[in-house]
């Protein structure tokens, strides 16, 4: 399964009329935040492949459509929720565990066909009390709320999760030391406990493309999706 990962940057290699010719063979698109939704819609329209997205700490104009708790913000008060058409081609994966039966693959352990198991987590570490920013405690609670669904996956499919899609990175993996770009320590806890094959994140801009963007932690491959990156699932080991 070939997966196109995007985050944080409207990439001219993606946002052009030749997208289908270059990336038409992907099976899935994962968007790790800080992307305009019309950019995601363009990708969905051009590729016509399953596309999941989360929100980061920027490009939050439509965040309140997906989170009622955010509807008391100044931006949200401008919106008419009863009449607005806020549907997008991508599927919002924020704080959800999703079983995608349209994306079947052969489990290398059991040899059986199985659906792809995805979970998504929006937001960054709190640094100025802005929208979609969370303390360690708040983010840990959101991860804990997903545990019942993860346990159901374990019972039914023999594993908790295949891919965790986040905006921020785990602490000390690809992150920075400034308050805005520190990662979440609870993501490291999640990796150890639930062992996703991949954690795909954004948030960390790569101004030097030689910077490390793929790191293995425990049994999880952590990938910085800045601009765009292709992964294979199940992992082939080429990264």
Helix tally? 6
State the distance separating the first and last CA atoms. Answer: 15 Å
Radius of gyration: 17 Å
How much helicity do the residues have?
A: 10-25%
Number of strands: 13
Strand order of the largest sheet: 5-6-9-10-12-11
Which secondary-structure class do the elements indicate?
A: alpha/beta
The biggest beta sheet reads: 6 strands, mixed
* Global geometry: globular
Into which percentage range does the β-strand content fall?
25-35%
Which residues sit in consecutive blocks of at least 5 with pLDDT less than 50?
none
Order of helices and strands: EHEHEHEEEEEHHEHEEEE
Mean pLDDT: 92
What can you see in these coordinates?
This protein is an alpha/beta fold and 239 residues long. It is 21% helix and 26% strand. The chain contains six helices and 13 strands. It has helices at residues 19-23, 37-47, 63-66, 136-145, 147-157, 185-194; strands at residues 2-7, 28-31, 51-53, 91-92, 96-106, 113-121, 124-125, 133-134, 163-166, 198-201, 214-217, 220-224, 227-232. The strands form three sheets. The chain has a six-stranded mixed β-sheet with strand order 5-6-9-10-12-11, with helices on one face. Helix 4 packs parallel to helix 6 (185-194). The longest helix is centred in the N-terminal third of the chain and has 11 residues, at 37-47. The two termini are 15 Å apart. The mean pLDDT is 92.
